[in-house]
Amino acid sequence: MKKLSILVIALLLVGCTPQAYSDNLTKGKDAFNDGDYSKAVSLFEKAQNEKETDEISSYIKATQLLLDSEQAIKQGKLDISLKKAKQVVAMKGNDSLLKRAKSKAKSLIHKDQTLLRQKKSLEKSIKKGKALLANNQYDEANDVLNKALSKNTLEHPAISEQKSTIKSLIKQAVNGAKTSASDTEQTSAQPQKSSSDNTKSNQDTSSKATSSNTNTNTNQQEGSSQGSSQSSSQSSDQSQDSGTNQGTNQSLTQEEAVNLVKQYLGVDSDDKTIVQYDHDDGQGNYIIHVYEKVIDDPSTGVGHSVTRGWYSVNKKTKKITAQ
C-alpha cells in the first residue's frame, strides 16, 4: 500500500505543469500579440526549459520564422523573407497563436511578392534605358525611365538601389539631350559664319579695286561710317534686349516649385501630405511627387507610400500641370 501511494504521487508530480512554464508561456503569447517576436521567442524558450511540449516547440518555430522573415525584408533579402513566411503557413496546427502567425506570414508573403514585382519591373526599365542611352536616344530613354518611376511608387529599402539608378540615368538623358541640342546649334551656325566672312572679304576687295578714284573712295568711307554707326546702335539694342530677356526668364528653383504645388493643392505645414521634388523631365519642367506615407507595421516602422499625384512645374512660366 505504501509503495502504491509513492507511485501515485510520482505520477502526479510528472503530470503537473510547472508554474514557471505557464507564466513564461502566457508572457510569450502577450509579446507575440504585441509584435515583439524576439521577446516572445526568448520567453517561449524559458518555458521550454521548464517543460518540453509539442505546443511550445511549434510556438518557438513559428515565431522565429516570422522574426527571420521580417529581418530579411528589412535588409532587402526578399527571397529569404518569402521562404521563411511560406514555412509558417505550411506548419501544422490551428490554435489561436498559430492562426495569428499564419495570418502575419501571409501579409509578409504579399509584401514580398509586391516588392519582387516592382524590383523586376524597375530592373527591366533600367536595362531598356541604358540601351537607349547607348544609342543616343535621350528623349526616348527619359520617357521610359520617368514612366518606370511613376508606375512603381512603393518606397522600400529593397528597391531603393534600383530607383536611385533610374534617377541617375534620367540625369544622363537630360544632359545628353542638352549636349546634342547644343552641338546641332553650333553646326547650324558654322555656314552662316562662313558666309559672313566671305561677304566681308568681297567688300575689302571691292574697296581696294576702287581706291584710285578719290571721290568714290570718299563716298564709300562715308557710307561705311554710317553703316558702322547703325551696326553699333543695333548691337547696343540687341545687348539691352538680351539683358532684359535674361531677367524675365530666370528659372524657378526646386524649392520654389515645391512651394507652388503646395499652394496649388492647399497643403499646410501640419498636413500629413508630403510634397517632394523628384526629378527633371528634360523638357524644362520639375516633376513633383505628392504622396502620403502609411505605416503597415507600427512595431517595425515598415510601411508604404500612397501617391496622390504627380505634377510638372515649368521652370520659366511656373505653369503647374497634373501628370
Sequence-ordered SSE layout with sheet pairings:
Blueprint: H1 2-15, H2 19-33, H3 37-50, H4 54-74, H5 78-89, H6 96-134, H7 138-151, H8 157-209, H9 214-248, H10 254-265, E1 274-280, E2 285-297, E3 302-314, E4 320-322
Antiparallel strand pairs: 1-2, 2-3, 3-4
Uncertain regions spanning at least 5 consecutive residues: 7-14, 209-248
Structural classification: alpha+beta
CATH architecture of the largest domain: Alpha Horseshoe
What is the terminal separation in angstroms? 91 Å
Please provide the count of β strands.
4
Mean pLDDT: 80
Query: Largest beta sheet: what is the strand line-up?
Result: 1-2-3-4
Helix content: over 70%
Shape: elongated
**Main β-sheet description:** 4 strands, antiparallel
What CATH first level of the largest domain would be assigned?
Answer: Mainly Alpha
Q: How many H/I helical runs?
A: 10
The number of distinct structural domains comes to: 3
Protein name: Lipoprotein
Keywords: Signal
InterPro entries: TPR-like_helical_dom_sf (IPR011990)
Signal peptide: 1-22
What does this molecule look like?
There is one protein chain. The chain is of the alpha+beta class and 323 residues long. The chain has three domains: 17-115, Serine Threonine Protein Phosphatase 5, Tetratricopeptide repeat, CATH 1.25.40; 117-176; 254-322, no CATH class. The chain has helices at 2-15, 19-33, 37-50, 54-74, 78-89, 96-134, 138-151, 157-209, 214-248, 254-265, and strands spanning 274-280, 285-297, 302-314, 320-322. Strands 1-2-3-4 form a four-stranded antiparallel sheet. Strand 2 and strand 3 (302-314) form a beta hairpin. Helix 2 packs antiparallel against helix 3 (37-50), helix 4 (54-74) packs antiparallel against helix 5 (78-89) and helix 5 runs antiparallel to helix 6. It is elongated. The N and C termini lie far apart (91 Å). Mean pLDDT is 80; it is low at 7-14 and 209-248.
